[in-house]
From TrEMBL:
Name of the molecule in the record: Probable protein kinase UbiB
Organism: Marinomonas transparens
Location of the active site: D285 (proton acceptor)
Localization of this protein: Cell membrane
EC top class, as a word: transferase
Function of the protein: Is probably a protein kinase regulator of UbiI activity which is involved in aerobic coenzyme Q (ubiquinone) biosynthesis.
Gene label: ubiB
Length: 547
């Protein structure tokens, strides 16, 4: 708790040091903000108005990787930022201040357990690029291949854990103090983010992610993923093929190379949906610093993806639900969207469908009448948040990473081809995917997946059939014996019912013999004995022999 409090104090001091308060429009803030915090922060604001983008970038750099990543996400949304701020934040993608090349060399030698001279024919101590978590050096293998060496920043995990601890405290406070906070599930979101960013510190996992993404797009005309050199990969070091291409954010160079920007933008959308729905494995850190363009064929440009540290995946239920929702949106079937939300449990079961449908329509309908450049995604998010608040719709933590990636994709689309119609581009893909999920091709794929298991069970089938038939026969014999027992019991009951009057008469005769003997006087004792004996014999015969 003390560490988190100290970290929070440092954040406040950093905000004041770089005069980030100058970015806050206090003139439109509530009166209690203007006359408290506003008055305090107004000191020196005029002097602080210059280079606000640079001040924001420096502040985020000084606060560490989590804040730098936030700046990277913002840098893709030039529609929401002033140009000077967007230009400065773009430097956070690969121009974060580097650490010493000698330190990087020491980390490489420690992890790979060999001197750099033995590992590489050439190694550049000056970094090629530097980002929030790691930096990259160029090198050449003794076999002649040109490679890049990625090295994790020293002591970075300690800083990240401090920030995650602070986020946990804030998430719990929001959950306790606000109904909206509980609905947004901040604790679950922070937990997911913690796993994601800590995985990013393990370059062995990034190498494995890169290998899987490469296999998914092998021989693809859409995306190229560099080769990983597995013998040179460890937790803090990863070596991979050095690629050449134009950074996707370098619009001037792409135009100079006569790249078909419309095709490039559409291919970006197709790559995203292919990863999410066809592969269930998508690159979730698609800011411009991680994407390059191969312009060998400018009319059919090809993407190059690097930095596969943060990857996302969806299970079959999430994919199906998401696809059905998107298709319903594209078809403007807002009633189906409302029904799917209720069916999935995102909103309570008792939610009035008509009212929910109307609210969704009011938010989403304006999106279809405009090209991408004219759609304010921020306004759409605000409208959806208001809808969510009204109908108690809950945030789904498993989709937060996907939503972050969608923000990056939309921002990239705006830069490449502002007139791109995202809906027209995505709809055919989703329709094709849904047909594949329900058609014969899907059945054949599932049969092919299950074939090895079925083949392994074939030798056991005769034994399984014999065992099943034996069990059925045993059950039939058991049922037969039970039936016979029931029939025998029925016969016994029937017989007993038929002999019941004789038994009663026999009991009466025995009782009468006993009474006659007990009550007879001495004078008639001898005759009574004969009568009692006769009654007893008759009674015994009726009770026993007629049973």
């Amino acid at each position: 708790m003390f560490t988190s409090a100290f970290r929070f104090l440092r954040i406040i001091l950093t905000v004041m040091r770089f005069r980030l308060d100058a970015l806050v429009p206090f003139s439109i803030s509530p009166w209690y903000i203007r006359y408290s915090l506003g008055l305090f922060c107004s000191i020196g604001r005029k002097r602080a108005r210059k280079n606000k983008g640079e001040r924001l970038r420096l502040a985020l750099e000084s606060l560490g990787p989590i804040f730098i990543k936030f700046g990277q996400i913002l840098s893709t949304r030039r529609d929401l930022l002033d140009d000077d701020i967007a230009d400065e934040l773009a430097k956070l993608q690969d121009k974060v201040p580097a650490f010493s090349g000698q330190v990087a060399q020491a980390i490489i030698e420690r992890d790979l357990k060999a001197p750099v001279e033995e590992l590489f024919a050439e190694f550049s101590a000056d970094p090629l690029a530097s980002a929030s978590i790691a930096q990259v050096h160029t090198a050449t293998l003794h076999s002649g291949e040109e490679v890049v060496v990625k090295v994790i920043r020293p002591n970075i995990e300690k800083t990240i854990r401090k920030d995650i601890g602070l986020l946990h405290i804030l998430a719990n406070l929001i959950t306790r103090m606000s109904d909206d906070g509980r609905r947004l599930k901040p604790v679950e979101v922070v937990n997911d983010y913690e796993h994601t960013i800590l995985d990013e510190l393990d370059l062995a996992k990034e190498a494995a992610n890169t290998g899987l993404l490469q296999r998914n797009f092998v021989d693809s005309e859409l995306l190229y993923v560099p080769q990983v050199y597995w013998d040179y990969c460890h937790g803090n070091v990863m070596v991979m093929e050095r690629i050449s291409g134009i950074p996707v954010a370098d619009i001037a160079s792409l135009n100079k190379a006569n790249v078909d920007m419309k095709c490039l933008a559409e291919r970006g959308v197709e790559i995203f949906f292919t990863q999410v729905f066809s592969h269930s494995f998508f690159h979730a850190d698609m800011h411009p610093g991680n994407i390059f363009v191969d312009v060998t064929n400018p009319q059919k440009p090809k993407y190059i993806a690097i930095d596969c540290a943060i990857m996302g995946s969806l299970d079959d239920a999430d994919k199906s639900y998401l696809a059905r929702n998107l298709l319903a949106f594209f078809k403007r079937d807002y009633r189906l969207v409302a029904e799917l939300h209720v069916e999935s449990g995102w909103v309570p079961k008792g939610t009035p469908i008509h009212a929910f449908e109307s609210a969704i329509r009011s938010v989403c309908e304006p999106m279809f009448a405009k090209p991408l450049k004219d759609i304010s995604f921020g306004q759409v998010l605000i409208g959806l948040f208001q809808t969510a608040r009204r109908f108690n719709m809950e945030v789904q933590p498993q989709l937060v990473l996907l939503e972050k990636t969608l923000l990056n994709i939309e921002g990239l689309g705006r830069q490449l081809y502002p007139d791109l119609d995202l809906w027209v581009t995505a709809k055919p893909f989703l329709e094709r995917w849904m047909r594949e999920q329900m058609g014969p091709k899907r059945i054949m794929e599932e049969a092919r997946k299950q074939a090895p298991e079925w083949a392994g069970q074939l030798p056991q089938i005769p034994n399984l059939i014999f065992s099943a038939l034996s069990q059925i026969s045993h059950q039939q014999e058991h049922m037969k014996s039970q039936t016979q027992a029931i029939e025998q019991l029925g016969e016994e009951l029937k017989k007993n019912r038929q002999g019941l009057p004789f038994k009663l008469l026999g009991l009466v005769s025995i009782g009468a013999a006993w009474i006659t003997t007990d009550t007879a006087s001495l004078e008639v004792l001898k005759s009574a004995d004969f009568i009692s004996l006769g009654l007893f014999i008759v009674g015994l015969y009726l009770f026993v022999l007629k049973s």
